[in-house]
Design a protein that fits this description.
Rossmann fold, 12 strands, 203 residues, alpha/beta, eight-stranded mixed sheet
Length: 203
C-alpha cells in the first residue's frame, strides 16, 4: 500500500537530475541535493515527515522505537519524537561500539544528558540502558524504488539489520533521495519508507 500526501510541493524536482549510478558519486550528488533544501521548504518537509511517522506508529502499535540524531542535513524529527514520548513510546538511539560491529540501542528521552560518541554524534550519557527495539528508523542518503537504502558507506546499519531481520526497518528521507542503483547482495529491503509525500509500504 502506498499513501501519499500532495500538500508539500517541491520548488524543483530531482527526478530529472543526471545522477550517475556509481555509488560514491551518487552519494555525493544526493547529499548535495539534500543540503540544498533550506528554510521553509526543509521545515515543511520535516513537519510532514513527522506527521507521517506519527501515523505510521499509531497504525503499527510500535512501543519501542529506535530513532536517530540528525546529522549532515538528515530530516529533523525532534517534534515528532516528543509526541511519541507523550504517547508512551520508548525511544532509543543507536550506539556505535566499534568500526566493524553492529549497532546497539540505548534508551533515550528527549532532554536527557547527552555526550558525543567517537564520531561526534550525541548519544545518551552513561550509564546507558540498552534495549531491543520493536522497529528501527533509518535515515537514507538514497532510496531505490525497491526500498533498498544507500547510506554513508560505513555498513553499520547493514550489519545491524543482518542480525535483526525480524525487526522492521523504516527508511526516513526527503523525497529527493529517491533514485536507482544496483543493490548489493548484503543489502536488506526496508519494510517501509516515510518521506514528506507519504508512507510507502507497498509489497
Amino acid at each position: 500500500m502506498k499513501r501519499t500526501d500532495p500538500s508539500i510541493a517541491w520548488g524543483g524536482s530531482c527526478s530529472g537530475a543526471d545522477l550517475t549510478r556509481d555509488k560514491t558519486v551518487l552519494r555525493r550528488q544526493l547529499l548535495g541535493l539534500r543540503k540544498a533544501l533550506t528554510g521553509a521548504t526543509r521545515d515543511a518537509a520535516c513537519e510532514s515527515i513527522g506527521r507521517h511517522l506519527l501515523d505510521w506508529q499509531a497504525g503499527s502499535g510500535t512501543a519501542t522505537l529506535a530513532v536517530y540524531w540528525p546529522i549532515r542535513g538528515e530530516p529533523d524529527l525532534a517534534a515528532a519524537y516528543r509526541q511519541l514520548v507523550m504517547r508512551g513510546v520508548q525511544l532509543a538511539l543507536p550506539i556505535v561500539s566499534g568500526p566493524a560491529t553492529p549497532l546497539t540501542f540505548a534508551a533515550w528521552t528527549p532532554g536527557q544528558p547527552m555526550t558525543p560518541d567517537t564520531f561526534g554524534v550525541p548519544v545518551p550519557a552513561a550509564p546507558q540502558r540498552l534495549l531491543m527495539p520493536d522497529a528501527i528508523l533509518i535515515p537514507c542518503v538514497g532510496i531505490s524504488a525497491q526500498r533498498y537504502r544507500l547510506g554513508y558507506g560505513g555498513g553499520m546499519y547493514d550489519r545491524t539489520l543482518a542480525l535483526l531481520r525480524s525487526v522492521p526497518a523504516i527508511g526516513i528521507a526527503f523525497d529527493c533521495a529517491r533514485t536507482e542503483f544496483a543493490a548489493a547482495p548484503h543489502d536488506i529491503r526496508l519494510q517501509a519508507l516515510i518521506t514528506e509525500n507519504g508512507i510507502d509500504d507497498s509489497a
